[in-house]
């Protein structure tokens, strides 16, 4: 049976909206992690068969196939192509899936899965009329959508509120979770847990967004994002800047290029879910991954589930019965930021390095995505 191995995983620090990476061109962000990945793995870059890069807001400096422009901006061989993909927040996790599938199919041996997003320079929704007004105008939804779902508001913010209501999560529950995320992230940064996976850039060596000194009292004073709602900025992922890259290799490539595999791709899974709720997809995606893998939740040593909003993780934990101590052990996007197209690869880099740091065997990554979708990936540390 063919195998797909993770040979290398690198990311930029996650920069804040007004931080040290805010002014870096997206293609240069992507170029930085691609160069770092090539250097750290020692691979001949001309041997790479494709560069698959996730990016959500494909406008401005992120338009015109940023995967290709990032590779060329890195000074790497013109012979290697690149393609940019959009599965919303899961774009670079999907890049990992596509890269692994290319290797598992036997049609490719070396593929880079990557992601980039500079939300400071290219704001979320730059490529589409965003929010309820866009929906009312029929953009990006057409007549068929309107017939099926009506012209109701479709947004992640409404989805987060709907999840909080359905899973009976109070504002206090959400804020307690967010506080713990910030505490864990602060401890991990200070302990240097992320240092091995980060390629410093522009004088920035560590993640910028964490707020370990926040308090429940500070959170309680924030205004909800929606009138009468439970979701505030404190329990939401932060707008951020970042890039990520992983090298996925076949057994043949490992032998030919004298590479050291660090983990194998164990299971790939996808799921669709209610697009109005939007954020519930990680639940069925995880269930499918566990069933396909033959593993139980207790077999998973580390989980990285994207903290788009606190209800996403808390609802998932309730339904899956996951041990909170294993879930985002070093904090998540509420504390560390969520540079949309890059986050999937960032979470995979965190997952791999945490398994290596702790000696765990199996890691699970999952994340909610626009349109009511989710990826789930199980890796096995080698």
From TrEMBL:
Residues 5-252 form the Thiolase N-terminal domain. SUPFAM superfamilies: Thiolase-like. Residues 260-381 form the Thiolase C-terminal domain. InterPro entries: Thiolase, Thiolase-like, Thiolase_C, Thiolase_CS, Thiolase_N. Transmembrane segments: none annotated. Keywords: Acyltransferase, Transferase. PROSITE patterns: THIOLASE_2. Belongs to the thiolase-like superfamily. Thiolase family. This is Acetyl-CoA C-acetyltransferase. It comes from Actinocorallia aurantiaca.
């Amino acid at each position: 049976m063919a195998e797909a191995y993770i040979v290398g995983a690198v990311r930029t620090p996650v920069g804040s909206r007004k931080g040290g990476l805010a002014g870096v061109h997206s293609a240069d962000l992507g170029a930085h992690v691609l160069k770092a990945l090539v250097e750290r793995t020692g691979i001949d870059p001309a041997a790479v068969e494709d560069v698959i890069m996730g990016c959500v807001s494909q406008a401005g400096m992120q338009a015109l196939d940023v995967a290709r422009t990032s590779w060329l901006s890195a000074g790497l061989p013109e012979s290697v192509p690149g393609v940019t993909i959009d599965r919303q927040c899961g774009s670079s996790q999907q890049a990992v899936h596509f890269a692994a599938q290319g290797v598992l199919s036997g049609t490719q041996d070396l593929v880079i899965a990557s992601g980039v997003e500079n939300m400071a320079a290219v704001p979320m929704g730059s490529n589409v009329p965003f929010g309820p007004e866009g929906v009312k105008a029929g953009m990006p939804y057409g007549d068929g959508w309107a017939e099926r779902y009506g012209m109701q508001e479709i947004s992640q913010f409404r989805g987060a509120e709907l999840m909080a209501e359905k899973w009976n999560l109070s504002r206090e529950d959400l804020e307690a979770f967010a506080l713990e995320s910030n505490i864990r992230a602060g401890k991990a940064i200070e302990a240097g847990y992320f240092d091995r996976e980060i390629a410093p850039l522009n004088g920035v060596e560590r993640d910028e967004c964490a707020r370990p000194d926040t308090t429940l009292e500070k959170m309680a004073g924030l205004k909800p994002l929606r009138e009468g709602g439970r979701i505030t900025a404190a329990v939401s992922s932060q707008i951020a800047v970042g890039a990520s890259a992983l090298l996925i290799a076949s057994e043949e490539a490992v032998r030919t290029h004298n590479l050291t595999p660090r983990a194998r791709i164990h299971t790939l899974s996808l799921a669709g879910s209610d697009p109005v709720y939007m954020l519930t997809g990680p639940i069925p995606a995880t269930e499918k991954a566990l069933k396909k893998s033959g593993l139980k939740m207790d077999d998973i040593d580390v989980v990285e589930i994207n903290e788009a909003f606190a209800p996403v993780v808390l609802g998932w934990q309730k339904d899956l019965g996951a041990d909170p101590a294993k879930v985002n052990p070093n904090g998540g996007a509420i504390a560390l930021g969520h540079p949309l197209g890059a986050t999937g690869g960032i979470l995979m880099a965190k997952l791999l390095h945490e398994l290596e740091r702790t000696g765990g065997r199996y890691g699970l990554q999952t994340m909610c995505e626009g349109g009511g979708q989710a990826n789930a990936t199980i890796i096995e540390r080698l």
